[in-house]
Amino acid sequence: MVKSVFLTAALAASSHAFQLPASTHASDRLVPRSTSLDSERSQTADATDAADVRIRSLGSHLTRSLAPTLAAASIALGPLACGAVSGGGMDYANLNLTGQDFGNGNYKGKDFTQIIAKGTIFSKSNLQGCRFYKAYLVNADFSGADARGAAFEDTSMDGANLRNIVASGSYFGQSLLDVESLEGGDFTDAQIPPKTLKLVCDREDVKGTNPTTGADTRDSLMCL
Ligand SMILES: *[C@@H]1O[C@H](CO)[C@@H](O)[C@H](O)[C@H]1NC(C)=O
Description:
- This is Pentapeptide repeat protein.
- Helix content is 39%, strand content 2%.
- By secondary structure, it is an all-alpha fold.
- It has a domain at 104-224: Pectate Lyase C-like.
- A two-stranded parallel ribbon has the order 1-2.
- Residues 96, 98-99, 116 line the site of 2-acetamido-2-deoxy-beta-D-glucopyranose.
């Protein structure tokens, strides 16, 4: 009996959550199932029933109280998830831009996540806030680019040219160590892992002054 009561309550709760009509239909549907369960239940100790009721009523209470929360969450997340795709578009994410020329352009806020950009030219472009997360940027040219607030974490940047880049507030990972040059770059407030930064500061090309901002490269990295 307890099971059928619980199942009725749970189903009523979930029907309620999905705005289906009242529980009368739910209990009709449950009748055959609960009778088949009754024979099993005759073996079960009565002592567990009280606990069962408490746990199960808690369960249906949770079902009831979580349902609106989950509904609200999916409503709230829906447009966001869509926005990531249709709002600014996926832009260039996952594309192979090897050897292409993106120089002297405006790509502010664009998504270059996981691009393959071997030798791709981004020189003197506006790359503010761009995402290059997990991108393959071997030998890419970022010289003189405005990459403020851009994300370069988990990239491959072997041989990349960061000469005179404005990368204030940008995010770098270990691959910053692999670039061909960062002379004249402005890295003010850039996020660089401490271990990486220590090694970056040892580089001979950590020198010069950024022609755009006037920042001293070494000072901008706060190298000792
Ligand atoms: C990317 O494009 C270049 C040039 O078209 C090509 O040589 C290379 O094989 C491509 N790489 C991949 C992984 O598709």
